[in-house]
Amino acid sequence: MSMFHEINTPLRTIMTPGPVEVDPRVLRAMSTPILGQFDPAFTQLMNETMEMLRDVFQTKNQWAFPIDGTSRSGLEAVLCSVIKQGDKVLIPIYGRFGHLLTEIAERNGAEIHIIECEWGEVFEQEVIIEEMKRVQPDVLAIVHGETSTGCMQPLDQIGPACRELDVLCIVDAVATIGGTDVKVDEWQLDAVIGGTQKCLSVPSGMAPITYNDRVEQVVAARKKVERGISTEADQKDVLNPIRSNYFDLSQLQDYWGPRRLNHHTEATSMLYALREGVRIVLQEGLEERFARHRFHEKALIEGVKAMGLELFNDVPWKLPMVTCVKIPDGVDGESVRMMLLHQFGIEIASSFGPLHGKIWRIGTMGYSCRKENILFVLAALEAVLLRHQVKVQAGNALQAALNVYESKNIVVKS
Amino acid sequence: MSMFHEINTPLRTIMTPGPVEVDPRVLRAMSTPILGQFDPAFTQLMNETMEMLRDVFQTKNQWAFPIDGTSRSGLEAVLCSVIKQGDKVLIPIYGRFGHLLTEIAERNGAEIHIIECEWGEVFEQEVIIEEMKRVQPDVLAIVHGETSTGCMQPLDQIGPACRELDVLCIVDAVATIGGTDVKVDEWQLDAVIGGTQKCLSVPSGMAPITYNDRVEQVVAARKKVERGISTEADQKDVLNPIRSNYFDLSQLQDYWGPRRLNHHTEATSMLYALREGVRIVLQEGLEERFARHRFHEKALIEGVKAMGLELFNDVPWKLPMVTCVKIPDGVDGESVRMMLLHQFGIEIASSFGPLHGKIWRIGTMGYSCRKENILFVLAALEAVLLRHQVKVQAGNALQAALNVYESKNIVVKS
């Protein structure tokens, strides 16, 4: 028998683009003794979570609930419930997670059309709209905040264009939900997938999604009730049934809706975590929370620049919660990251594909996005770079960040 | 904005066939601050969890790790990674969860062959083996412990027969893992899926699985590395690629194995919970734990019988951790369940399909399987039945259960 000790982890300062530090109130919520899934005390918590999720998504959609899995489970649930074999799916790609959408859509039998731009850029919305007119896809799938490049794609014109061209608009807002505006209704997005482990500061393991009537109609046409619990009225032949049982939104609706038809066993403790996470978001206030993310971002950026480093994503379309720093010539980026981790207990990220070895990515998301963390990561990065023989002007970074912090008369509540 | 109070749940005595009460040590483990997914401190916890899972599954398989989702996510991950379009899959059905296997296999393009027996029965192993010879399936998918009927299917002859007939043997051990023997290697089972929210007393939200080289070969032939992180060497045309990205075992192996290729973001807190849960199982000892389940089962059964009630599953193939009680004629089973919940805070279960309204199901799983709970549920059931004008001999149930408990000279450590 292999026996191990109880969990005894080091306490890290997590400044990656996710997973980030979990709010201590969320950690406490998870230690609540569980309830049965059909206990009225539990279904009430499910309903409350749906209601709060609607506010976080800024939507009046009936359907707003989590998929029990990590963020990409939410992407797959929406894509596999919507995409039928041979459907045309247009995917504009500006980083790694666009490729993930391609990967999932392709496995679900889609005819994929992609347009790509260089990593670090985003698309003019008009370019995407023109491509939609040309391709006439059934679905547009697009990333809102691309953590691999630190860029954010404007969507406010794309949603309405999709409506006009009768294209379903599916948006990966895993990185942005709870950290910056994701205006589901105003932008006319048909389905949006959020993530827990980023700006919501809830552990990975659930994927909150929302979708509107247009998506529900597509899903309803493919609906099958599970054998073993179906009634005769439920039995019918279905064209293009959804290929997954676990991710079948039509079944999940019956579980989250008033029919409460048994599907999976809801992940109780993660539901507690998500409920507490979105409660904290609404308690802080969406506007206030987004402003907090921008404020700490500014302190970080000023500090990084004062150190003499360059940003990779110093652009109008910068993702506010991910700051990408160019690795100075001749510096081993991984060695810097390892020293940050081993000497300071700070985690920052590298990147993928064409940006691997070129940039560091510093996340300022949710509970990790607070003053002490920004100041500590700047101090540590300066010290580690000096240790790597990089000529940085010692002391400037913290002074620049403090200037930002002191520019507000109030002490910022972290 | 919809604002709600902090979580403030009633404390229940959960005596269903899952989800059951979570061990308090597991609840505490979940409140541990998280680590990044590639933090060496975290990957070590992942490796330790794999090692302990192997012991719980009684296997030397290299692969033993959780799928990040509820139990049925584990079923779907294995089935969709193994089943190719048109594969013949034989599914013996003796309750609801056999139908679920059919549902998942069918959606993955399988040609389904089923044999059924009445709910409450199991199959003679020879019957299944003969059917395999006739059908010559690629895969046999079967439930080990059927919670809907409280029956357990013997598998010790089926595994070796599958090996001989070159059939992959996939077993749903969601209800049995950690509560009774699941001898993966000795019974020659090729892939086995366990559940967390039953005998492991971990919340729902992860599905530990294990599989051997025979399964790995099938999966490897369908392997595709994800776009956006693949190298040129990874790019090749694949016949019959796996239809899901989230459930692609070939990608999950690369994530859980030494290559540590990014896939999802591991559900950190659930991994802490699972690690603590399997640690507790091994600390207790498999044999001791299985004996404890049988011992409390005996006390419950004696108590139920002494009350004058009949068991539905008083058979040699009874599932030790689920006791099914026939609802006496003229009694509204749901009214009894509701009174147990509202007056005593005790949850027991009804059943599905042909057994709905016919039986109650009382679970004795994991942390819920302890003396206080058994005695409380017997006392409460007696009182509630008296309240429903059922002529039970007051007091007998607890005396019978106490006889069992006193038959051991030692006080049973619950």
TrEMBL record, chains A, B:
One of its GO terms (molecular function) is transaminase activity. The keyword ATP-binding does not apply. SUPFAM superfamilies: PLP-dependent transferases. InterPro entries: Aminotrans_V_dom, Aminotrans_V_PyrdxlP_BS, PyrdxlP-dep_Trfase, PyrdxlP-dep_Trfase_major, PyrdxlP-dep_Trfase_small, SP_NH2Trfase/AEP_transaminase. Its EC number is 2.6.1.-. The keyword Nuclease does not apply. Gene3D superfamilies: Aspartate Aminotransferase, domain 1 (3.90.1150.10), Type I PLP-dependent aspartate aminotransferase-like (Major domain) (3.40.640.10). Belongs to the class-V pyridoxal-phosphate-dependent aminotransferase family. This is (S)-ureidoglycine-glyoxylate aminotransferase. It comes from Metabacillus niabensis.
